[in-house]
Structures are given as structure tokens and as C-alpha cells.
Amino acid sequence: MAKIGRIKRLANPGGGTGISFSADLLLAAKLMLEYSLEDRKDNATPPLDNHMSKHSIGSIVLLIAGLESWLNEALAHLSTYDPTLRTRGKDTLLTKYKYLCSWDGAGRIALTDIATLARAHCLNLSQINDDLKLVIEVRNEIVHPMPFGTGSPWNVPNDFLRLHHMGLLMTTGKPDEDYAFNAKLRSYALAYWCWEVTETAVSLLVKHFEPDQLVAWTAPNFSQYKSLCPPKDLANYGFP
To answer: What is the pTM of this model?
Structure first.
């Protein structure tokens, strides 16, 4: 019932002011990523480009919560141009993102086709959508766990094998004696990649909405992770 009420408020906003928690959620997500970097100190012999951390799980969950909050902010603001956007509050996170990518503006705002923008910035829109879908599925796996054995090599379900092949999951290096899948998700490299994917998706959407600068105002919050050590440089990361 509470979700239905929130959707109704988006579709039929009342008087007064409103705020969103995207900035707060993304700050908390960045702090979790920072803590997960600090967790490297507690790993006796971590891989050169990764390490296990429970904080990385929290960073991913808060990051995607921040993304959905930010998309709801965008829908609420852009509905001043197109009131039909208010009905999109009921959509799934990925559907909201794809719909805003396909929205071509209305009335006082005219937007450039997002596929054209992606090509102009050497980005692959299809790849961005696929990556974002995978990041969301990682979040779903964390918050709606089914902690059973996968019965597959490397203990990785088929839908997540791409993460394994990219080297983003924790692993023993032994396909028949690997970590449980939920433990494999406790990965600094995976959390960092989720931030990279989300920032790319948001940045493209901001370019799409460039005629309206308000959407871009809070987008830099998705870049906070860049102040932390990327996985490729972990081997040279020192602690005081």
C-alpha cells in the first residue's frame, strides 16, 4: 500500500515542497566503497587487483537505491514539460531509465536522439543498457538472496557468468572448489565497476537532457567513486 501511495503522489502531486534522498544515498554508497577499500588491510594475501569486503555489498545496494531516487527526481522535474511522465513512477528501475532515454522532449524542450549522442561520444547505447541491467541484477541478488549452491562451475549462475569472465568476482581460482556465489559478490572490483557503469548511464542521460540543466545538477554525485583507488592500481595502494 505504501508503494501505491508514493506512485499516486507522483502522478497527482499536491501542494507544498518535496525533496529527494539521491544525494544522501550516493554519499552513503561512496562511504561504503571507501570502507571496502580500507578492508584491504585485513586481507592477508589479496589478489593484486581485488579483495573481499562485506562493505562492497552495501555500496552496490545504496548506489542503485540512489540511482532510482535520482531517476524519480528527473521524472518529477521533467513532468513540468510533459505531465504524462508522472505515470512512469510505477515502472521498474531499468524501464524508467530506458523510457527517459527514449523520451524526445515536449513543448518547451527539444532533445537530441540519445543513440546519436552515444555515437558522438563513442559510447555503445546497447552495451550501456546491458551493463546497467546486469548491475541491477547484482543488486537484486543481494537484497533478494536465494543462498543455494548453483551447481555450476565456479559457483556462478549463468546470468552472471560475464562478471566472472571479466574478473570482477572473488574466486579461489579452482572451478570445483570456489567460494559460494554470495561470497563471490563481496568484491571491491565488482562494486567499483557498478559505480563506473552507473556513472556512464547517468552521464549519457544528462547529455540527452542538456537543454534542461536542472537534471544535471545532482549528476556529479555519481562520480564520487573516482576519488578512490581503482582496482587496476590496488597493487600499488599503500596504507599509512
So the answer is: 0.91
